[in-house]
Specification:
The complex is a heterodimer of chains A (about 120) and B (about 240). Chain A is an all-alpha fold. Chain A has one domain: 3 helical TM bundles of succinate and fumarate reductases. In chain A, about 80% of the residues lie in helices and about 0% in strands. In chain A, helix 1 packs across helix 3 and helix 3 runs antiparallel to helix 4. The radius of gyration of chain A is 19 Å and the shape is elongated. In chain B, the strands form 2 sheets. In chain B, strands 2-1-5-3-4 form a 5-stranded mixed β-sheet, with helices on one face. In chain B, strands 6-7 form a two-stranded antiparallel sheet. In chain B, helix 2 packs parallel to helix 5 and helix 5 crosses helix 8. The longest helix of chain B is centred in the C-terminal third of the chain and has 16 residues. The relative contact order of chain B is 0.13. Classes of the chains: A mainly alpha (about 120), B alpha+beta (about 240). Chains A and B meet through helix 1 and helix 3 of A and helix 2, helix 6 and helix 8 of B.
Chain lengths: ~120, ~240
C-alpha cells in the first residue's frame, strides 16, 4: 500500500470532457453520413466516390476520424491505467497507442483526399 | 414466524491457522425475535465464538457490520432475514485485505477519505457562537452528510477495486462534495484541484454500484456528477 497520495496530474477534466464532446461529434456525423448515404442515386462505387468528392464531406469525415481517434485514446488509456500496473510497461503501451492513432489520422487524411 | 433453521455459508479465514480462506456451512435455529441478519450472527457467535465480525450500534448508524450478503454489500443490522435466499452467503467486503473472517482492513478506505480533507476549512476568525448558514444553504448538505462510512459503496465499485490507492472511491467523493457544497467552506478551489486528476475523480465510470448498495439510500454518483459539473463551470 502506498503511504502518501500524490495528486494533481490536472488533465482529468480535459480528457473526460473531450470524450463527451468527441462522442457528440461522432453521433452528429453518423446522422449526417446516413442521411447522405440514403440520398445517393444508386449504391455504386462511383456514387460513393462522388459523395466523398465534396469538400465539406471530406472535412466532416476527417473531423469524425479525429474525434474517433481522440475518443479511442482516452478510452484505451483508461483501460491501460486500470489493468497495466507496471509504470514502464504502461508508458510503452501509451506511447504505442498514441503513435498508432496519430498514424491512423494521417492515413485517414490520405485516403479521404485521394478518393 | 415460528422457529426454523436457517442455512449459512460463511467465509472463514484465520491467517494464524488457515492456509487459505474457505466457506463454512453452518445452520442455526431462528425464532420470531430474530429479525435482522445481525441478530442471527450474534446467535452464531454464541454457538461458535471463533466466527469474527465487527458490530457496534446494531441500528445502521455506526457502519461497522458492513459485509457482502448473498453477493451484495450491505449492513447486517439493516438486512431482514426474511428477505434472504438460503443458504445465505456471507463474505467480507470485496477488494480490501481480510484480517479475519468477515473483518477487513479499512486502512486504504480511510486514507482516501482523509485525503479529501473531511472538515470545513475556513480562515476567517471564528464568530462568537457559530458559523451560520441559511436554510437553503443547509439544504444543500442533505443526502451528503448522512454517510456513515461503512464502505459498502467503495468496496462494490470496480474502479475502487482496480485502483484503491489512487481512486478516492464513492464514499470519499460523496464526502468531498459534502465540503465543496458547504457554504462555510473556503477551500473549494483547492478541493477541486485535489480531485482534478485522471485517477482521483475520473476513474468513476458511473457504474452506480455505489447507489445500488448504499444502506442509507445516498447517491454518490450524483455527488460525483456535481463535482464534475463544478469543474466544467470553472474551466469553460
Amino acid at each position: 500500500m502506498q503511504n502518501r497520495i500524490v495528486v494533481g496530474a490536472h488533465y482529468g477534466l480535459r480528457d473526460w470532457l473531450a470524450q463527451r464532446v468527441t462522442a457528440t461529434v461522432m453521433a452528429l456525423y453518423t446522422v449526417f453520413f446516413v442521411v447522405n448515404l440514403f440520398c445517393l442515386p444508386e449504391f455504386s462505387a462511383e456514387a460513393w466516390r462522388a459523395m466523398f468528392s465534396g469538400g465539406f464531406m471530406r472535412f466532416a469525415t476527417f473531423l469524425f476520424w479525429l474525434a474517433l481517434f481522440f475518443h479511442a485514446w482516452v478510452g484505451v488509456r483508461d483501460i491501460f491505467m486500470d489493468y497495466i500496473k507496471p509504470v514502464g510497461v504502461r508508458l510503452v503501451a501509451h506511447s504505442v497507442v498514441a503513435f498508432l492513432l496519430i498514424g491512423y489520422a494521417g492515413w485517414a487524411a490520405q485516403i479521404l483526399w485521394r478518393l | 414466524m415460528a422457529n426454523r433453521t436457517m442455512k449459512f455459508q460463511i467465509y472463514r479465514y484465520d491467517p494464524d491457522k488457515d492456509a487459505a480462506p474457505y466457506m463454512q456451512d453452518v445452520s442455526i435455529e431462528v425464532d420470531a425475535t430474530d429479525r435482522k441478519l445481525l441478530d442471527v450472527l450474534v446467535k452464531l457467535k454464541a454457538k461458535d465464538d471463533s466466527i469474527s465480525f465487527r458490530r457496534s450500534c446494531r441500528e445502521g448508524v455506526c457502519g461497522s457490520d458492513a459485509m457482502n450478503i448473498n453477493g451484495k454489500n450491505g449492513l447486517a443490522c439493516l438486512t431482514d432475514i426474511a428477505s434472504l435466499k438460503e443458504p445465505v452467503q456471507l463474505r467480507p467486503l470485496p477488494g480490501l485485505p481480510v484480517i479475519r473472517d468477515l473483518i477487513v482492513d479499512m486502512t486504504q478506505f480511510f486514507k482516501q477519505y482523509h485525503s479529501i480533507k473531511p472538515y470545513v476549512v475556513n480562515n476567517d476568525p471564528p464568530p462568537e457562537r457559530e458559523r451560520l448558514q441559511s436554510p437553503e444553504d443547509r439544504e444543500e448538505l442533505n443526502g451528503l452528510y448522512e454517510c456513515i462510512l461503512c464502505a459498502s459503496c467503495s468496496t462494490s465499485c470496480p474502479s475502487f477495486w482496480w485502483n484503491p490507492d489512487k481512486f478516492v472511491g464513492p464514499a470519499g467523493l460523496l464526502a468531498a462534495y459534502r465540503f465543496i457544497a458547504d457554504t462555510r467552506d473556503q477551500a473549494t478551489s483547492e478541493r477541486l484541484d485535489n480531485l482534478e486528476d485522471p485517477y482521483r475523480l475520473f476513474r468513476c465510470h458511473t457504474i452506480m454500484n455505489c447507489v445500488d448498495v448504499c444502506p442509507k439510500g445516498l447517491n454518490p454518483t450524483r455527488a460525483i456528477g456535481k463535482i464534475k459539473d463544478m469543474m466544467v463551470r470553472r474551466a469553460v
